Structure formats: structure tokens, C-alpha cells
Amino acid sequence: MKILSITRALALSLAARQGLAAVTQGISDTLYGRLIEMATLSQAAYANLCKIPPAITMVQKIYNAQTDINGWVLRDDSRKEIITVFRGTGSDVNLQLDTNYTLAFFQTNPKCVGCFVHGGYYLGWISVKDQVESLVQKQARKYPDYALTVTGHSLGASMAAITAAQLSATYNRVKLYTFGEPRTGNSAFASYMNTHFHSTDPAATKYFRVTHTDDGIPNLPPTAQGYAHSGVEFWSVEPHNAHNTYICTGDQVQCCEAQGGQGVNAAHVTYFGMSSGACTW
Ligand SMILES: *[C@@H]1O[C@H](CO)[C@@H](O)[C@H](O)[C@H]1NC(C)=O
């Protein structure tokens, strides 16, 4: 038994290093619980952070009126982390960002060489960059041993990915959890993320890209328009539990994307039984 599982683990890590597709079923209860915590914050962001754990302190809200980007910098002293969470699409202004697939040069992070990101979300990022960076910097200085965690769902997921990419140029304690993330950038951006967030190894990754059954948003924008995914995909199928969460590595279309969903569907708006902004959990 033991030999078999070691062989499988080796095959997985080898496949991952070569960028080949690998899928394994089941994650630990600890990791599953962690994904639920981050999904709770991301879904609560649609409703002014309803029902988030009392241990989490609100530091300050992030907001830009032109782009209607909404986020919060939070702090969890029990887990020693500074959390930045972004709300997903909540207005027509946000929808205009969602549908702007023009790739924009990722000018704010020169360490990301040849990187282009989703043009609409880049406008979103530019609109809140100063707020995010100064808030995170103040907290990071005050709490040097805290992790810098970034999370969000849908538009909020791509905002989180761009933010994490930017913060990773300055800090090496950034962690990223996204839910129903659209493709956020080109292949140079994807490689940058995979390198900085150790995403060739599911056991070491700091980029958890969570998807749900046939959520159609991870299939957009199309790869044909120069977009690619990054991070390690954690694919949750129903009934959702730790065993029904798959780990998917490599750059092939597989797991969630292979289900063929397109755009916003039922699977997109609910993660681990929690609907965006419903606050019923
Ligand atoms: C789409 O995004 C690009 C790149 O960020 C930007 O230059 C352009 O103005 C945007 N288009 C619209 C209609 O907002």
C-alpha cells in the first residue's frame, strides 16, 4: 500500500514538473476546511462581509467609484494573516470590466516579464492599486510574521490574482485562493504565477484555484484569445466534501473546464453550498 502511494506521488510530482496533466482525488480535511474559510469570505464579500468569523478584524475597505471595485483588508490574529478580499461582479460597471478581454501589459509589475493581463481587470487593479498597497504595507510592517492572503470569487478572483502577482514582487509570504476565477492573463503571466506560487507541486503551492463542477467562468476568456490558467486547480464536485475535491495540475483543459460550461451558470454562483451574497450558511 505504502509503496503504491509513494509511486503515485512520484508520478504526480514528475508529471507536474513537466507541465503534464495530472488529476488526483481527495484532499485533507484541513485543506478542505481552509478552502471553505476562504470561500466564505469571498461569497460574503457580495453582502458587506455577512457572517464572517468574529475572529476576523476589519482593517479598512477598498473602493473605487469609477470601476466599482470593492474589497476589504482584514486581519486574522488567530491565524496570523492579513487578508485582502475582493467582491465579484455587482454592477453594470463591473460587467463592462468582465467583458473587456483586451490583454493589457502588466506594467505595474516589471518583474513579470512579457506579462499581459485581462484588460478590464487591469483597469480595476489600477483603480485600487494605491489603496491596496498602502493598506497591506502598513499591516505587513506591523505584523512581519503574518501571511499575506488574497482571495475572491469571479471578478474578485481575477482581482485577487492580479493583486497577489503584484504583492509577490515585494513580499514572499503571499497566498492566493480564488473561486470561479476567469482566465486572468497570458501564458507569461501564468508561468510567473506558477513559479512564484510554487504551483508545479500541489503540496507546496500557494495558489489554490478552486473550481466547482461545470462552472463556466473558468472557460473565459478563451485560450484562443491568448489567455491561460495558472495555479493548482482544486475542483469540487457534488456532494462537496474533502474526498470529492480533485487536485488538477498541468496546463491542459481538464477537470472543471473539460465539463464544457460557458459563462455564468448555477455552478458558478455556489461554492461549497454557499451562494454569492446569500448569507444563508
Ligand atoms: C479595455 O481594456 C483596455 C486595457 O486595460 C483599455 O485600454 C480599454 O480602454 C478598455 N476598454 C474599455 C471599453 O473600457
Automatic annotation (TrEMBL):
What are the entry keywords?
A: Hydrolase, Signal
Q: Which InterPro entries match?
A: AB_hydrolase_fold, AB_hydrolase_lip/est, Fungal_lipase-type
Q: Which chain positions lie within coiled-coil regions?
A: none
Q: Does the keyword Hydrolase apply?
A: yes
One annotated GO molecular function is: hydrolase activity
Question: In which domain of life is the source organism classified?
Answer: Eukaryota
Task: Show which residues constitute the signal peptide.
Answer: 1-21
Q: Where is the Fungal lipase-type domain?
A: 85-223
Instruction: Supply one GO BP term.
Output: lipid metabolic process
Kindly provide the name given to this protein in its UniProt entry: Fungal lipase-type domain-containing protein
| Source organism (scientific name) | Penicillium subrubescens
